[in-house]
Specification:
mainly beta; 2 domains; 6-stranded antiparallel beta sheet
Length: 150
C-alpha cells in the first residue's frame, strides 16, 4: 500500500530492483523502453550459398545455425566482442520463417533463432558484414529475403 502503490518495478542484472515508473504514485518516470539495436546484412557472397553465417557460439568455427541473405535484419542480443585479431563478433536474434512439416496448410511459422555473427572482419582482411539500421526506419527484425536457409 502507501505511496508506492501503482509504481512499476522491475528486476535488474546482476541483482536487485529498480523503479521504472512512479507516475501513478505521483512520482517521475525514470526509464523508457529502449529497443535492441538492429543491423542489416550488407555483404553479398560470390558463392550464393548464404551471405552471412549465424553460428551457435562466439567462436568462428562453432556450429552453423542458419545463413542470412543480403538485406536481412537482425536484432543485437548482447554486447559485441572484439577478438584478438580485431574481428568483431555479435550475438543476435532473428526470425526464421519455416514451413511447418506437420500442417497441411501453407502457414509460415516464425521461429526465433539466436546465434553469433561477424559484424566486421576488415582487420583480418575480410569484409564488413553488417551495418546498423537507424531507429527511424520502422523495420522489424526478420529474415526478409531468404526465409531461413540452413
Amino acid at each position: 500500500g502507501g505511496k508506492a502503490q501503482g509504481c512499476i518495478r522491475m528486476p535488474i542484472q546482476p541483482c536487485g530492483w529498480v523503479t521504472a515508473d512512479a507516475s501513478r504514485a505521483g512520482g517521475p518516470q525514470y526509464l523508457i523502453r529502449a529497443h535492441a539495436p538492429r543491423w542489416r546484412a550488407i555483404y553479398q557472397s560470390p558463392t550464393g550459398n548464404g551471405d552471412v553465417i549465424v553460428r551457435a557460439g562466439q567462436e568462428l568455427d562453432s556450429e552453423a545455425v542458419m545463413s542470412l541473405g543480403f538485406g536481412d535484419i537482425v536484432e543485437q542480443a548482447g554486447p559485441s566482442q572484439t577478438r584478438h585479431d580485431g574481428i568483431v563478433r555479435m550475438p543476435i536474434t532473428t526470425s526464421q520463417g519455416r514451413r511447418s512439416d506437420s500442417r497441411e496448410d501453407e502457414d509460415t511459422l516464425n521461429v526465433k533463432v539466436s546465434g553469433w555473427v561477424t559484424v566486421d572482419a576488415s582487420s583480418a582482411g575480410g569484409p564488413v558484414f553488417f551495418k546498423i539500421v537507424p531507429d527511424s526506419s520502422g523495420e522489424t527484425p526478420s529474415n526478409n529475403n531468404n526465409k531461413g536457409r540452413r
